[in-house]
Structure formats: structure tokens, C-alpha cells
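Hey,
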Amino acid sequence: MATAPWEDGPITTDERYLSSVETSDLTIEGGMVPKDHKSGAADVVGAAGLGVGLAVSARSTGMALLRLHSEWTSATKPRRVGRQVLEVLVARIKAQDVLDKETARRARASYVAPKPAVVRAADEAQRWYTNELRLLAVRLKSRASAIQQLNLWAAQKGVDSAMVAAGLHYWLDETCHVCDGHGFMKIPDQPALSAKRCDYAIGCGGTGKARFPTGAERVLRHIEYCLDQARGQLRDRLGRMK
């Protein structure tokens, strides 16, 4: 039986909210809340929904972010490019190298491949995977609400809207997907890690985290502030429900 994420310590507000939005039982028996009622899934979701439709505030933005994060956590992530597809990519790149070399020869010029074909194939597969993750984030139901509220804040503060999207995507998933957050590269076809650090040119250089989007610092700070406000509201309301 899988171990619940809170078995090693107290349940956090985020974990409680995530558990609540995923549960299949959101009923409150009898439709009324008895005096000795203890807060459950319906209460958590209900508390998170308070404030929807009102003027944008840090708390409502935080609630939208919590909903978005729960959808991201529950979403099925794309599968990585398999070895067979990588081999096809390598063959295609090598064939293009032959054509480019012949074109250069006819022009009495030299041609040197920028990187080995296998490295360029891995780079292309990584770009595809990263783009698929971004497309997944864009399709999540709560993203429109979260990004709209963040953009309203950005417009008031003179923050570039492009930085809002970059910061939001980084907050959702800051894992380096070149090494899957390990900091070291995997040994091909093996479960173990190699002694080679993740390449800094295309990855994290050993930190396990994706590169921080330059210019998005204020967005990330605002996201954390909104989350603190939302978590505080949840704790207060749940505390009164006990």
C-alpha cells in the first residue's frame, strides 16, 4: 500500500487541499453542518472556493494557484522520447550532415557538424519534451484564471506579461528535465545514475532545477505571497469549522 505524503509529518494545507479536490466523496451528510462537525474534503474545497467572482486579491489569486497546482500534480505527463525514436533522429541528422557536407564541398567550403549526431538528437528530444510539458500546463482548466489574475497584478506593477507566463510555468515545474532533477545523468538503459553531472549548457549543471527565468523574480515573489495569503485563509476557515 502506498504511503501517504503526510505520514511522515503533519498534513500541510496544500496536501489537504490537493487530497480534497481529488476525493470522490465531497458530501456533507444531511446538508447541514452539525456543531461537532470536523472539517473534511467538502469544507476544504468550499473554503478554497470562497472569494471566487470577487475583486482580484492576493488571496483569490492564491486560491487559483492552488487549484492550478492540484491539476498539474494530477495530470498525466507526456512520455519521454524512446530509444527507437532517438535512433531514427540520429539517422536523420547524420543523413542531413552528409548532404550539408556535399553542399559545402561543391561550394569549396568546409563543413563541420556543430555537435555529434547523438547529442543533437538528444537535444531535439529534450526540446520536444519540454514543449509538451508547457502545452500541458496551458491546457489546464485553472490556468486561464490564474494567469488573468497575475496579469492584472503585473499591469498595475509594470511587470512584463511575458515574465508572468515564464514565472508561472517555472513555479509549476522547476525540475530539470535533462536529468529529471537528479543532477547527474542516467546511464542509458540502466536504473542507476552516472558520475557525469547534468550538462550546464542544456541542463542544470548538477542542481537538479531548471534554469530560473531571468526577469521573473518579482512574479515568483508575488506568487509565493499570494499562496501564503490563501493558505492562511484556508487555515483560518478550517480552524473555525472544527
